[in-house]
Amino acid sequence: MTKDHLNVQDGAMVQRRMPRVEELSRLLRPAPIVGDGTERRLRRAASIADLRSIARRRTPRAVFDYVDGAADGELSLRRARDAFARLEFTPTVLRDVSSVDPGRDILGRRSTLPFALAPTGFTRMMHHEGERAVAAVAQQVGIPYTLSTMGTTTIEDVAAAAPGGRTWFQLYLWRDRAPAKDLVQRAVDAGYDTLLLTVDTPVSGARLRDVHNGLTIPPALSLRTFVDGALHPHWWFNLLTTDPLRFANLELAGGTVAELINRVFDPALTMADVEWLRGIWPGKLVIKGIQSVDDARRVVDAGADAVLLSNHGGRQLDRAPVPLELVPPVVDAVGDRAEVFVDTGITHGADIVAAVALGARAALVGRAYLYGLMAGGRRGVVQAVEILAAEIVRTLQLLGVTSADELRPAHVRLRPQA
Ligand SMILES: Cc1cc2nc3c(=O)[nH]c(=O)nc-3n(C[C@H](O)[C@H](O)[C@H](O)COP(=O)(O)O)c2cc1C
């Protein structure tokens, strides 16, 4: 075939004409004009990555980086995400998947979706609607929400924002046990049914972005933050015209993130403390931040009802094990005595489906809902949860299974690294 043969003129093959007006009017279906800016922004977001982009534009740099960043070279986080990206599903076809149930029993209660919302500190800094908004969305959807010890809303106010919902409390133990005991009692009185003890924080990880940005909590007014204020006036306006940003559940003066964390965390925490907590906490106990099979065994021996395989979203030890890869061996070791949860790096519903297929009872998500919160407050959190829910349901259907409970290790494999 010669070059001339390939170079056929368009006109030789296609007869052109003028379009008729009726044809054009049928095509022109203008989208309804949405007056509310938040609504308009959120409508266009089809993925957690889209919410992240909006969040980046809507919040001051230091706040966005505090959420988005991780420790040191951020390798723990990157590797966790890479592991999800390397997954390969094995679908089955010709099954009736017209109706699927993505729900899951988590620590004795049904959750409508196979994930819970992870504890995140300083949540009202991300958006003034803060923890109340996140807890209310979780309650409406029917999934658990975890309030952090470093939260900016009280234990009681969060419970009141999600009546009938399932609220969990995340505990840091610090040198003086008395305030921790007090918090545990308040969580019992307010009806929290599950306690997560975080154990991957003997000291703060090195969050370099926070150091570079000079982030303090509450944010301090400096020349840099003043300039930033001009770029994000709505954020500063909301910060300054709502309840002052403070740790709602503990007496702590402000400072840099590392200073605050190091003041709270107890580097002398041991297994005896897990046993002590087991003795005073009547509900379900989850140990958060487990990163080896041996430790999973030890905390289950000490009375934990579940282990959360997590490296804190890559915010503590860099080059930590990839939590997802620990799921199969930890399920093998303790799965008959305890539930196994996993977090770190989840940005898509398919990540959660894969985690469950590998044996996790459920996943927890942190940044995914925070991006939604920063992008649009409560409505942004709704959007984040809806995006993940739709992705989970679609993935189950494409896999040819009718419920999350049907997922098995055969549905997924971790492709070896290239
Ligand atoms: C902004 C932010 C604040 C966090 N604060 C806490 C906290 O106060 N206590 C805690 O146990 N974990 C905290 N975490 C870790 C999360 O609970 C969770 O382990 C992590 O976000 C999971 O990774 P992902 O963000 O990639 O989903 C925080 C995470 C982020 C992103």
Give a summary of the structure in a few sentences.
Helix content is 46%, strand content 12%. The chain has 418 residues and is an alpha/beta fold.
Question: How would you characterize the overall build of this protein?
Answer:
The protein has 418 residues and is of the alpha/beta class. Helix content is 46%, strand content 12%. It is built from 20 helices and 14 strands. Strands 4-13-12-11-10-7-6-5 form an 8-stranded parallel beta sheet. It has a two-stranded antiparallel ribbon with strand order 1-14. α9 packs across α10. The protein is globular. The protein starts with a helix and ends with a strand. The protein binds flavin mononucleotide. Flavin mononucleotide is lined by residues 66-67, 118-121, 148, 150, 170, 198, 288, 310, 312-313, 315, 343-346, 365-368, 370.
Query: What small-molecule ligands were found?
Result: flavin mononucleotide
- Order of neighbouring strands in the sheet with most strands: 4-13-12-11-10-7-6-5
Estimate the global geometry from the Cα principal axes. globular
The number of helices is 20
Report helical residue fraction.
40-55%
Q: How many β strands by DSSP?
A: 14
Low-pLDDT segments = none
